[in-house]
Amino acid sequence: MTSAIAWPLVVWHNFSNPITTCLTSSYPNVFAGQKDGHIWIYTLHNDRVRHKLLLTGHKAAIAALCVIKAESKTGDVLSTSDDILISAAEDGEIARWSISDGRCLGVNAKGFLGVPRQLKTFSQFKDRYLFCSGQSNEICILNSATLEVVRIWGSHSSWVMCSDFYDSVAQRGRLVTITMDGKLDIWDFDPSRQAIFKERAAVNQPQLIKETEGAPDIAIDIVSSASFPGLCMAVTRRNVVIFYLHNDRFVPEITLPAEQGTSWTGAEFCGENRLVLYTQDGEYVEYIIRPPEGVRPGAMAEQEAQLYYSARLLQKYRLHAAENAPMPDLYHSTILSNTDQDGQTQLSVVSFCNDADHSTFTINRLSGSETEELEPKSCGLSRFIDVWPLKKGQDPKFGRITATVPVSSNHLAIGYESGSICVVPLSLALLHLSDLSQYVDHRSSVRVFEGAHRGSVTCMIVHESHQHQYLLSGGRDGAVKIWNLIDGKYIVSFTVHALPVKSFIDPAEQSEARIRGCVVSVARDNSVALISVDSMSCLFIFPSHPYPLSAIQWRTAEDYLVLGYSDETSYVWQLATGYLDRVLHGKSSKQVFDDDRWPINQVSASTSKPSNGNKQNVNIRSIASHNQALQTSILFGHVFSFNIRRVVHDLYAKYEKTRGQDLGDFVVPPTPQQSTSFTSYDAVVPDITAFRPDKDDPLDVMSQPEDDESTKKLFKDKRGTDLRKRLELVSAIIAASISWNVSEAFETICSRTLMLQKHSYYENISYGIKGANGYISLLAPLNDEKDAWNISPDMTATRLLSVALLAKAIIFIAGQEAKSSDLIAGYAMALPAAVGNQYCFPSLSLLSKYWQDPSARSLFSSALNGLSEDDILSLISYWENYLPTSSSPESHEPHMMARATIVLGIMGCDQPQVLTTSVRKYAALSLALLLSDSDLDDPKTHHSDPSHASVARTLASMELLSQGFDTWESYINAAEVLRTMFTYSADPQPAMSRGAKNAIFQIANTNMPLVIGTLTYDATHAKRTEDRAQCLRIIGSFIRKKPVLLYSHVHRVVEAVVKTLDPNVPHLRENVLPTATAVLHNLVKTYPFVDFSSSTQKLSVGTLEGASVIYDLRTATRSVVLEGHQGAISALAFSPDAKFVATCSLQDQTVRVWYSTLSLLGVLTSSFSQGLARNESSHDHRESGSQKAYKVFSFALPHGGITEPYQIMHQVSFDWPSSRCVKLHVRDLVMSFNV
Fold this sequence. Notes:
Helices cover 25% and strands 32% of the residues. The strands form 14 sheets. It has a 9-stranded antiparallel β-sheet. It has 28 helices and 63 strands. Helix 4 (644-658) runs parallel beside helix 10, helix 9 (744-754) crosses helix 10 and helix 20 (990-1006) packs across helix 21. With 1235 residues, it is α+β, with helices and mostly antiparallel strands. A hairpin with a 5-residue loop joins strand 26 and strand 27.
């Protein structure tokens, strides 16, 4: 449960021509895998496709896609089911994506060993398993929910594919495989054991591949029919063979040969009885399948004569690609099935046609009617660029963006195809990336290097050296140039490459003086240069190589530099002479790079500086389409992923610096107090007092305000400039994220504080959502930004939470912090009406991850209030199934059980009436279980040191148990829960110990007798001395922080503390003495009815029953019990010689003076004593006695009495000026009594 809130904003500034590698669909969505590793999700609209989402993360081309139905795990009643997209890349990586918002749900980097070509799930096995096949003799079987490989299905003679079918004889689902050479086989699969086996060999296997002249025929797929059980189709390049599987026999039905000069590329059963075949030259053919006489679609054959099917041609269709740009893998098609209002199934073929310049698409509805025409029906094609939402692209002055790199914490360097470079603040880049040239003039925080290169800028890197900041740029002209970012001046240029510079690398070696301060440049011809920024010189130039550079090993102690290439060749260079020492190949080359004693740069990975993840305010990444053949990249978008909580904390930190500074008329409100929350929110991300903000950006520090004179006066010093820059960034984020015309009060305060223009809309900015493995899905440009509220509950929750946290800081700046919760809740509750019926309510599951933050808690309550009663009941029913007490760790994932406990725990705290008695019980027990957390940890990952997730779960359970204690108390063992919290209060982690103490305080507000009873009992009966001492420390915390809560229980505390000093218990007294002494000292200092005589080592305490008890601390026993008052003791004090003790009760308005030692009469009457002593043990009776008062004085107060504990503690006290006179102080009144 990380509390970092990532909010990706994507700025689109170009169009990328898609090159599709695979295609699949699920109405109304079409999914297109791309050559560059991206996945586009399109939606069907008026017989045209519309860009919806771009899924980013895969590093290699997408090789296969499939769609499965999966139960939603969001727990949001408005999204009970969700299609899941499974993707496989050519490097064997397999990923799961939510189709609603594109969020990545899981990744298996080693999902397939080889190049995958097909992903399939089978209804016969309830889509629980994923069968991945491709260029391998093995099929990987994965769990479709977790992507875990559960079985490697090998021993095939060649590359193999598979499908399922229903065996009417065995009456179960089975598998059929086909190898590339056409061999068919039948298998059984046991899902319970994930076992593949073959009961007997198949009979009469047909020969699908026949030797002919020309290119050899190969099998490319096998498909089964959902309408005709047992009917399958084997697809080869030359033939489509339809056959029936019956009693382990292959019954050939139909053979459909490809026309001369072309070949089949795929085939699909569709609808109830239709078949579509695709050819490599852009034709697809529609057939109708006719079952045997007496067999209707969906039924099984009952007689041998009913095994034979027929096919009739319905229609041919032909696509026309651009004639000037033929390319391999040109056409990709998929069937889109939809049921219309009349219940009729509508089938359409969606086809994409790749083109180097302008790829196209077409959507054609299948007629379903027979025709006598032999000529194919021509299909018109539409260009993707024509349906791209943005018409404005590149900057009118600088041209297209070709390279970017972050500069410090608040700037971005941007290179253009014109050769110019701009370094601008992030706020400017975010809102105006497409037309920066209109906003860069007369700004001191902007650096513009016009015409920096002849041709486009291809790469950049920022280098800091000797308190200077330099920008290195590489261009299409092969030059490397260095610029001083502080003063904006050009320094030096190196013409070191013949072809364009491809990338820069920071050396992994930083200890060697010759290498420190250097940067490596790599060109497109794989030549390498080592440039020293410190000396502004080029140290080495290494020649080009036919294969790409893959790694650099720095053997500086041996005076060697090793360059490794992708063809497993290594060149060893001498650093002293610059000569080539040797060339290594194959195994020898691998052994050199396997030596981990030397620093290595892996060039295949990102060559930019490593990201600090959540430790930065913003991470910036470019979205590029790569053309491997031309070795070019087109940047068409940039993602600004903001860590919202860090941005807000950074803003508060800048305010902290401005306190006490003269900033003109600008009044900085006090910095918010450190949060007393004790939750995972503070456990994972520290509070502001421990928060380390980003370093000041040198360009911000050097710049001066560019606005009018009043603004210059307002921010006339460095701290004011820092503050303004942070406000500019927050202003830009809010401007890009907020929806206008929703809540007038909320929008007014934001627009006035940040000087925002209402109703502003940035059409090239959309939103993203971060998923597993850091993969990000991006919304395509929207015609109306309010459409983003209709995407998914998770997208709504992330956007709302980001806006709420930023707005809370802005409202605080405006001096209206008291209204922040109401303003934010009002905005959230007004959104559904402003957006419309398609509005997706925020995900309660996601908000529960951050619920400890007041903004998230407010949004959670708002979302819950917006649901109907039936929706709330459905929500409760869903999450109840995941409670740990309703399931076991084996049946559900730990994080889902923890999430269910927290969601229902929040509801039990805020709206307990919506939970039934049984749900309250199970939620309470789950919270108690979550408190220990051990039962929810994976045994494979459990360590003695708890992880952040474990700490977060424990802290969340503490807070929920304490806040809703009156709801949960009757269902749990409250004393044991408290003891667990007592243990956590001594935890070495500050967040954990602080959390436990505050939870104990919260429970004390609800049931103080329970808390103090458990504390005093454990302080005197716990087996471990350390546990007793910890109970005393917690009591000390109550005295210091919550003295009023403890007021009515002070006598019980004193009794317990005294018992811990019993000298008769071995080692107890010496171990707890420092802690007990501190507690007693605080008691005497805090409460006027507790006093201590150091000369006699006696302690006296008054009780609510009117008695006073004197303890002898040397023997840890009661010495005297003083009874006589008719009301609670308000104050007492020993005389200076400890001979007397004076007591006062404001209720009976008397002062009594007693001998502090037991008199003879007291000894004689001790056995008849009444009062407090009779309620204690017989042991205590033998050790104490009672006596009558020596003197009794009555008094009257001239004005209203003092009854509240807080008043008594601060306004009532005794003072002994001498041993014969005592003074009683009540407010300003002083009464003297002579003894």
